[in-house]
């Protein structure tokens, strides 16, 4: 779940890596055929590559960022989610990861009960809740790119997060 959270936080940078076929083949020794599941492997391969290229600036987060900034924020949100919604299903891991990434600039302890209710509704029934908020949530179906891919879905989660935070 944490890996998908980080991917969602760095989605634009991930797209840059994915679009560079030469880098994927020569530096990472991988190929990308558009499937979402490949993105996690490529992300980790890029992190490993960057950790060995100390003279080059990172495209993604540094190992220090993972431990000092990203993981503590994720844990804070995960703890708060578990206290507010102890029965959230394990099969919702991407929904949770993407929504937490979209909400992560906000302290979870500042959400009001109406906002938490909407978070819970969204995690249980994302498409219907997004529609109720006036947001179209693409159905990725295993693909990363395009108007209906996982990338577009991550962007829609950001819109959902904004709508949730706007609830009084």
Quick overview of this protein structure:
The chain is mainly alpha-helical and 168 residues long. Helices cover 64% and strands 0% of the residues.
Given the structure, what is the number of helices?
9
Shape: globular
Helix content: 55-70%
Proportion of beta-strand residues: under 5%
**Mean residue pLDDT:** 92
Q: How many separate domains? A: 2
Low-confidence stretches are: none
User: What is the H-and-E element order?
Assistant: HHHHHHHHH
- What's the story with the biggest beta sheet? none
Strands, count: 0
**Structural class by SSE content:** mainly alpha
Written description of the protein model:
The chain is mostly helical. The protein has 2 domains: 2-52, no CATH class; 63-165, no CATH class. The chain has 9 helices and no strands. The model has no long low-confidence stretch (mean pLDDT 92).
Question: What labels would you give this structure?
Answer:
mainly alpha, globular
Task: Give the helix/strand layout.
Elements: H1 2-9, H2 11-19, H3 21-26, H4 36-52, H5 63-84, H6 93-103, H7 113-124, H8 126-132, H9 150-165
């Amino acid at each position: 779940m944490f890996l998908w959270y980080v991917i969602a936080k760095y989605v634009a940078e991930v797209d840059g890596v994915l679009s560079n076929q030469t880098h994927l083949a020569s530096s990472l020794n991988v190929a990308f055929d558009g499937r979402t599941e490949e993105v996690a492997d490529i992300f980790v391969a890029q992190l490993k590559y960057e950790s060995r290229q100390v003279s080059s600036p990172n495209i993604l987060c540094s190992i220090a960022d993972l431990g000092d900034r990203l993981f503590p924020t994720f844990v804070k949100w995960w703890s708060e989610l578990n206290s507010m919604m102890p029965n959230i299903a394990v099969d919702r891991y991407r929904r949770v990861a993407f929504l937490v990434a979209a909400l992560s600039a906000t302290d979870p302890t500042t959400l009001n009960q109406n906002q938490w209710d909407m978070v819970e509704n969204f995690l249980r029934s994302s498409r219907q809740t997004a529609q109720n908020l006036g947001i179209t949530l693409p159905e990725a179906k295993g693909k990363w790119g395009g108007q209906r891919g996982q990338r577009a879905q991550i962007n829609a989660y950001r819109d959902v997060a904004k709508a949730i935070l706007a609830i009084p």
